[in-house]
Design goal:
Bound molecules: iron/sulfur cluster
Largest sheet: 6 strands, mixed
Strand content: 15-25%
Number of helices: 20
Mean pLDDT: 95
Number of strands: 13
Shape: globular
CATH superfamily of the largest domain: Ribonuclease H-like superfamily/Ribonuclease H
Distance between the termini: 65 Å
CATH topology of the largest domain: Nucleotidyltransferase, domain 5
Number of domains: 3
CATH class of the largest domain: Alpha Beta
Strand order of the largest sheet: 1-2-3-4-5-6
Helix content: 40-55%
Length: 496
């Protein structure tokens, strides 16, 4: 867009969330932080490309930085009688949109917006309403407006069935009713951004919803070091309410704790931070937790990945597919043995992973995970899929313990955990400045998101890069279970 008042569908949606984003995009782009997820964009492209065939053959408008080239090609396709046009482009009065699919319907057209999600959110409806407005103002007779999104209930069996994979939802009436509101919104956004000096806009829930704003740090630069937004145990909506009531600093929140019904976890986080309290330990509760464990102890951690389009049979859109695990087997004397599994990329990893898991963990063995609900869900999924392994898998499931419990219950509390009990906060709090346990020191893969992306994309890489990534994945997952060993050791030390 060459002019700040020009609006595409994404700029319109941004302007609806907060028009100041558009002003900052124009005048302070360097203040933006990277909040876009490459995985989400990649998924959107994959689904968008596949959905083009939903109605069969289609004519594709080639992408061009020259918008007029795209609108002209669209007009040519319409004149030539194309049944379905992908990326059909329209422009009028500084408004522009490329429609994912335009499908001929007798004397008019059906406008179809494709989404890679499994549901339709409010902002998607606004997006469709903007497109309907632009097309109508370009003289296109839009008969129906649809959202085409993934069907979460679809289970792949053999070839992909596009009619089942996607759900076509009719939003025609909702979108038509928004026509006047779109015109008003466009005028309001344009008026807001057409100023030379930075417009005022205070922080609010719209800074995070429906999408986290790239300027959140810039617009929040006036916040003190410890503010209401740093509280781990409070909902975002409540944080903004306190912020607007002037209860921003930890001191102010604590002084009004009774009045605003501050919960015990928030009070503890605030007091611990303000007074810089040493680690607090409840030995009785920690001992009770430790007494539930038996040796040898199997520290277990899975890595999974998910794809919008099911890559194998018996997989739904976005289903978590386990492809790797690490297992540290700890004896009562503290000695360790490490086992691991990493599937070959490009084929369904689940059967082999399940078989190896039941070989590696004997019947009745005591296993440990950090935040075990995730591991339990993965194991239940495998047990449902492979009835011949179900008994053994459910035995592992039923003997799984959760190392997160002492931290979630605050039996061990450290100021450095910042009110969180995620292992990403707990580990550095228990072992500050320990390079052996620092995920930043790993090569290539540093967190679960990177592990998922690496495995999903591996088939497209050359062999040398694949080998490097496999080595990185193994190191990363090994550190996850080694970290659990160390966390457990620290718990034993503090109650000794
Ligand atoms: S951080 Fe909030 S106020 Fe600032 S531009 Fe983003 S949404 Fe608007």
């Amino acid at each position: 867009m060459s002019n700040i008042t020009d609006l595409s569908k994404s700029r319109y949606c941004k302007g609806l969330q907060c028009p100041k984003m558009l002003w900052l995009d124009a005048y302070r782009p360097e203040a933006a932080e990277d909040v876009l997820s490459e995985t989400i964009m990649h998924n959107g492209n994959l689904v968008g490309d596949l959905a083009r065939s939903y109605f069969g053959e289609y004519a594709l408008v080639e992408f061009s930085y020259q918008k007029t080239a795209m609108t002209e090609q669209t007009n040519t396709f319409i004149r030539d009688g194309a049944e379905t046009i992908a990326e059909a482009a329209f422009m009028t009065d500084g408004l522009y949109c490329a429609v994912d699919l335009l499908h001929r319907n007798a004397d008019g057209w059906d406008l179809v917006e494709v989404k890679s999600s499994t549901h339709v959110s409010d902002i998607y409806v606004e997006d469709m309403a903007f497109q309907y407005y632009v097309l109508t103002n370009c003289g296109i007779h839009v008969k129906r407006v649809y959202n085409l999104h993934l069907n979460s209930g679809y289970v792949r069996k053999g070839e992909l069935d596009l009619q089942q994979l996607f759900t076509l939802e009719d939003y025609t009436e909702t979108v038509r009713q928004k026509y006047d509101a779109v015109a008003q919104n466009i005028a309001a956004i344009r008026a807001f951004v057409s100023v030379d000096t930075e417009p005022e806009r205070d922080l609010d829930l719209y800074c995070e919803q429906p999408y986290l704003c790239a300027y959140r740090a810039y617009c929040g630069r006036h916040l003190p070091a410890h503010s209401v937004f740093d509280l781990a145990g409070m909902q975002a909506k409540t944080k903004y309410k306190h912020y607007h009531n002037g209860l921003i600093r930890f001191e102010d929140l604590l002084a009004n704790a009774k009045k605003i019904k501050l919960n015990a976890k928030c009070i503890r986080q605030i007091e611990s931070t303000l007074q810089d309290l040493p680690d607090a330990v409840e030995p009785k509760a920690i001992r009770a937790f430790l007494d539930t464990l038996q040796y040898p102890l199997y520290h277990l951690d899975f890595e999974t990945y998910q794809q919008p389009i099911p890559p194998f049979d018996d997989v739904k859109p976005y289903q978590q597919i386990p492809f790797q695990y690490s297992l540290h087997i700890e004896q009562a004397d503290g000695s360790l043995e490490h086992r691991e599994f990493l599937a070959q990329e490009g084929s369904d990893p689940r059967r082999m992973l399940a078989q190896r898991l039941v070989q590696d963990i004997p019947k009745g063995a005591c296993s440990l995970a950090y935040n075990m609900s995730f591991e339990k869900t993965v194991i239940r999924g495998l047990a449902e899929l492979y009835p011949d392994l179900a008994d053994r898998l459910m035995d592992i499931h039923d003997n799984l313990h959760d190392l997160m419990v002492p931290f979630r219950e605050q039996s061990y509390y450290s100021t450095a955990m910042q009110g969180s009990y995620s292992i990403k906060y707990v580990l550095p709090a228990l072992y500050p400045d320990d390079p052996e346990l620092d995920y930043h020191n790993l090569d290539g893969v540093h967190n679960g998101g990177e592990a998922s992306a690496a495995f999903a994309e591996m088939p497209s890489y050359p062999p040398e890069k694949r080998e490097l990534l496999r080595a990185s994945l193994l190191k990363y997952c090994e550190l996850d279970t080694y970290a659990m060993v160390k966390v457990l050791r620290r718990l034993r030390e503090v109650v000794r």
